[in-house]
Amino acid sequence: MQQESVMTIAHLYKSFGNNHVLIDFNLNLFKGENVVVLGRSGSGKSVLIKCIIGLLKPDKGDIVVFNESIGKMGEVELDKVRARVGFLFQSNALYDSMTVRQNLEFPLRRHWLAVTQDAVNKMVMEALEDVGLAHTIEMMPVELSGGMRKRIALARTLILKPDIILYDEPTTGLDSITGNEIISLMIDIQKKYNTSALIISHDMNCVRRASDRVVVLYEGTCYAAGTYADLLLNEDPKVKQFFEQAIK
Amino acid sequence: MIKESINNIKLGAFVLAGLIFIILLLYLIGKNQHLFGASFILKVRVDNVQGLRPGNNVRYAGIDVGTVKKLNIINDQMIEIEMVIDQKVQSIIKKNATVSIKTDGLVGNKVLEIVGAKIPALPVKNGDLLTPKKSIDTDEMLRTLSKTNNDLAFITDNLKITVTRINNSKALWNLLNDETIPQHVKQSAKNIQDITNKANNMANHLQIMVQNIQSGKGTLGKIIADTVIAANLNSTILSIQLISKHADSLTQQLSRTIQGIEKSIINGPGAIHALFNDTVFSNHINNSLQNIQNGTDGFNQNMEALKHNFLFRGYFNKLEKEKRKLNK
Amino acid sequence: MHQSTPLQLFLAEVGQIARFAGKFLLQWFKPRYEFAEFIRQCFIIGYQSLPLVGLTGFIMGLVLTLQLRPSMVDYGVESQLPAIVGIAIVREIGPVITALIFAGKIGSRIGAELGSMKVTEQIDAMEVSGTNPFKYLVVTRVLAAICMLPVLAILSDAISLYGAYLGVNIKGSTSFRLFWMLVVDNLAFNDVLPAFIKTFFFGFAVGVIGCYKGYNSKKGTEGVGQSANSAVVISSVVIFIIDLLAVQITDFLGFN
Predict the structure, then answer these.
(1) Can you tell me the distance from the alpha carbon of B4 to that of B13, in angstroms, rounded to the nearest whole number?
(2) Please, are residues A75 and A110 in contact by the beta-carbon 8 Å criterion?
(3) Cβ C105 vs Cβ C98: under 8 Å
(4) Inter-chain contact C192–B25, Cβ cutoff 8 Å?
(5) What is the pLDDT of residue B254?
(6) pLDDT reported for residue B276
(7) Nearest to residue C103, comparing CAs of C185, C223, C213?
C-alpha cells in the first residue's frame, strides 16, 4: 500500500509504578485507514490512545502525528494537533451541565475554528445530521439514551473535521443493534471525510466490520498484526483466543 | 442565551447588594469615627489617661463631636491626647474650654468631655492645646468614699462611747452642779489642750519624718546604715512616751480636781443653769476631748505606720520580743 | 508495597492539597481567561446560595438575640442587646456560619461535579477539546468561591442583623433607626475588616478543597460520593483553622 503515514508510534514505553503497561509498542497509521487495536481489558489500550492525544506522557519512545513529535510539544502546539485528532471516549464524556448544542459548540469555540454564531450553528447542525440526531439539539445529555449519547459524542468528535479519530471502545456498553448502528456510522464517516481511525476494542463484531487492519496488543507490545482475515487464520493460541469468540 | 443574560443581571444585583451593604456599613462606622468630612485637631495634655483609647468619643455638651485619634507620651508625667473634632463645632468650642476624662455610665467606655467656660473667649483653632480639668476618677471616688465611711464609723463609735461616759459620770453631773469650780476646770482643760496640742505637733513631725524616709527610696541604703537617725528616732519615740506620761499625770490631776469638786459640791448648792449657759466652756471640753482623741489617733496611726515600715519592723519586733520576755 | 501510617497519609494529603493550591495560585492570573465560565460559576456559587445562606443567617440572628436576651436582662444591660448581637454577628457568626453553609452547599457541589466529570472522562474530553481543564474548571470555581463568599457573608450579616432586629422587637421595642445606630456605634473598622478579609480565605479554602477532592476523585460512583463528602468535612475543619489563625493574626496586628 503506497499511502501517506499520518501517525507513527515508535518504541513506546509506559508504566505506572511497577505495572509496565506498554513495552516497546510500535504502530503506523496511514491516511484513510481504520486500524483496530485488539486486546483484553487492562492490557493498556486506553493508555495507548491517551498517550497519543497527550493526556498521558509516555516514559520513553516517540509519537509522531502529522510529522510532528507529540513529546516535544508545548500546550499551544499540542492543542493544534488535538484539533485535528478526534477522540471518542468510552464513557462519551458529554458535559452534563450543557445542552447537546453547547456540547457540540464547546470544542468549536475552544479551538477557534468558528467565530460567528451562524458558522457555529451551521457546523453543529451538520454534525448532528451526520449522526441523525438533529432533533435533540436543545436536550440535556441525561435525557438521551446510551446509543444517542454515543452518537452525540461522535458528532462532537466529528464537528472538528478531524483527520484522525481515536475510538475508545465505541461499542462497549451498548446492545448489539445499537453497536452495529455505531459501527455503520463510523464506516460512513470514514468514507465521507476520508479520515484515519485508530479503534480500541475487544468487540469482535466491531473488529470484523470496521477494521482495515488489526493489531493485537498483548503484554504491552504489538503481538500480532494483519487484516481480520489474516488473523482469523493465525494459529497462535493468544491470537486464537480472541477470534474463537468471533467464530461462535 | 436569554436565560444567561437574566442570570447575569441577577448576579449583578446580588454582587451590588453585597457591595452596597459593606460600603454603607464602613461608611457609617467611618462617619461615627469622624473619618470623613472636614475635621480639625485639638490637643490636651494630662498626667493619666485613665484607660482612654484611640477611637473613644469626644463630647461637647453631651453631643458626640469627635473621637480620640492618638495618645502621645510626651514624658513620664505627661500624655498628649490628640482628638479629631468635627469642623462644624469649631466656632462653638472656645479657647478657654476645659477637657476632662469621664466614663460613659458607671461601667461604660471612657469619653473625653470638653466643657466650655462661662467667660467669653476666642474660638479654637486647628491644633490648639486645651487645658485639662482634674476629673473624678471613679476608682478614686470609691476609694475615698470607702475611707470616709470607715472614718465615720470610727468617729460615731467613739462619740457613742464619749457620750455614754459623760452620761454615766456622776462626777461630771456633780461638777455641773457646782458654781465655784468652773475657773479651775477651765484652767485644767486649757492645760490639757496645750499638752495635747504639743503631742499633736510631735506626732505630725514624726509623720513627716516617716514620710521623708518612705519617699527617700534612693538613699535607702544610707538610711539603713545611718545609726544616728535610728537613735534620733528612738529618742523621739521616748519623748513621745514621756509626753503621754505627762498627759497621764494630767488626767490624774484632772480626776483629783474633779474629786475635789465633788467634795465642794456636797458643801454648796448647784448652779447647773450657769454652767449650761456657758456654751464656751462646753465647747472647750468638747474640743479638748476631740484633741485628745485626735492626738492619740494620730499617734496610733503613726506608730502603726512605723511598725509597717520595713525599716523599723526589726526594731518593733525586738520590742515585742522583749515584752514577751518580761511577761514571762 | 510500603504500608503508610495514617499520619503519613494525612501529611501526604495536606501536601497534595498545598500543591494543588499552589498550582491554582500559579495559574489563575495567566491567560487564557475563562471569563464566561467564571461568571456562570459566580451565578451558581454565589447567587444560588443566597436563599440558603440568607435563611440560616436570619435564623441565627433571631435566635442569638432571643438567647442572649435573658442574660442581658439579668445584668440590666438590655439596651445593649443590639450592640452585643451586632458585634457577634459581624465579627464571628456571620462569616463563619456562612462559610460553613457555603462549604456544605458549594464544597460538596464542586466535589461531586468535578468528581463525576473526572470519572466520566469529561475532564479529559475538555483537555482534548483545546481547553486547559484546570483553568476552565478549577480556576473559575475557586475564583468564584473567593469572590462570592465575601458577598454572601456580607448579605448574611445584613439579614442576620435584620433577624436580630426582629428578635429585639419580639419582647422589647426598639426603632429600626435606634437599633441600627446601636449596632453601628459599637462597631469599628477593626471589627468589620478582619472579618470581611477572612471570608476571602474561607472561600479560597472551600473552592480549593472542593476542586482538589473532585479533581482527584477515585473511579466509580463511590469515589464521587467520597469526594463530595470529604470536600465538605475537610473544608469545614479548615474554615475553623483559618478562623483560629485569623483571630491570632488580628490580635497580633493589634486590631482587637
Answers:
(1) 14
(2) no
(3) no
(4) yes
(5) 74
(6) 46
(7) C213
Question: Cβ–Cβ of C42/B7 closer than 8 Å?
Answer: no
Q: Using CA atoms, how far apart are residues A63 and A82, in angstroms rounded to an integer?
A: 13
| Residues in chain A within 8 Å Cβ distance of C119 | 91
Tens of pLDDT, residue by residue over A214-234, are 888 888 788 888 888 888 887
DSSP 8-state class, residue C3: P
All three cell numbers of B241:
512616751
In angstroms, what separates the C-alpha of C203 from chain B's closest C-alpha?
Answer: 15
The predicted structure's pLDDT at residue B181: 61
Residue B63 distance to chain C (closest CA, Å): 14
Cβ contact (<8 Å) for B19 and C151? yes
Q: How many CB pairs below 8 A link A and C?
A: 51
**Could you tell me which residue, C248 or A113, shows the higher pLDDT?**
C248
pLDDT above 60 for B273: no
How far, in Å, CA of B124 to CA of B70, rounded? 19
pLDDT at A194: 85
- Closest-CA residue to C217 (of C137, C146, C148, C117): C117
**CB contact A96 to C (< 8 Å):** yes
Instruction: Summarize the confidence of residues A158-166 as an average pLDDT.
Output: 87
Compute φ and ψ for B103, nearest 5 degrees: -115, 135
Q: Inform me whether the C-beta atom of residue B4 falls under 8 Å from chain C C-beta atoms.
A: yes
Of the candidates C113, C120, C129, the beta carbon closest to that of A110 is on C129
Is 60 exceeded by the pLDDT of residue A116?
yes
**Low-confidence residues of chain C: pLDDT under 70:** 1-2, 256
Range of weakest confidence among A14-18, A158-162, B33-37, B80-84: B33-37
Cell numbers describing residue A126: 451538520
3-state secondary structure (DSSP) of residue B70:
strand
Would you say the ipTM is above 0.90? no
This prediction has a pTM of 0.69
Q: Quickly count helices (H) and strands (E) in chain C.
A: 12, 0
Closest Cα of chain C to B16: distance in Å? 9
Residues with Cβ within 8 Å of residue C238, at least 6 apart in sequence: C205, C209
Alpha helix (H) ranges present in chain B?
A: 2-32, 138-168, 170-177, 182-215, 220-225, 227-267, 272-277, 279-308, 310-327
Of the candidates B15, B18, B26, the beta carbon closest to that of C192 is on B26
Pairwise CB contact (< 8 Å): C127 & A55: yes
Inter-chain CB proximity C130 and A110 less than 8 Å: yes
Q: What angle do CA A242, A178, A239 make, to 5 degrees?
A: 5
Query: Where does the pLDDT of residue B175 fall: very low under 50, low under 70, confident under 90, or very high at 90 and above?
Result: low
pLDDT band at B243; cut points 50, 70, 90: confident
B touches which chains (3+ CB pairs under 8 A)? C
Backbone angles phi, psi at A216, to 5 degrees: -95, 120
CB atoms C43 and B22 under 8 Å: no
Instruction: Note which residues in 6-65 of chain A have CB less than 8 A from chain C.
Output: 50, 53-55
Contact, C182 vs C65, CB < 8 A?
no
For the stretch A167-216, pLDDT in tens is 888 888 888 888 888 888 888 888 888 888 889 888 888 888 888 888 88
**Interchain contact, C154 vs B22, CB within 8 Å:** yes
CB contact under 8 A, C192 and B55: no
DSSP A218: E
Q: Provide the CATH number for the domain formed by A34-56+68-212 in this structure.
A: 3.40.50.300
State the smallest CA–CA distance between residue B222 and chain C in angstroms: 46
Chains within contact range of chain A (3+ C-beta pairs < 8 Å) = C
CB contact under 8 A, C151 and B10: no
**C127 to chain A, minimum CA–CA distance in Å?**
8
The DSSP bridge pattern shows strands A213-218 and A196-201 to be unpaired
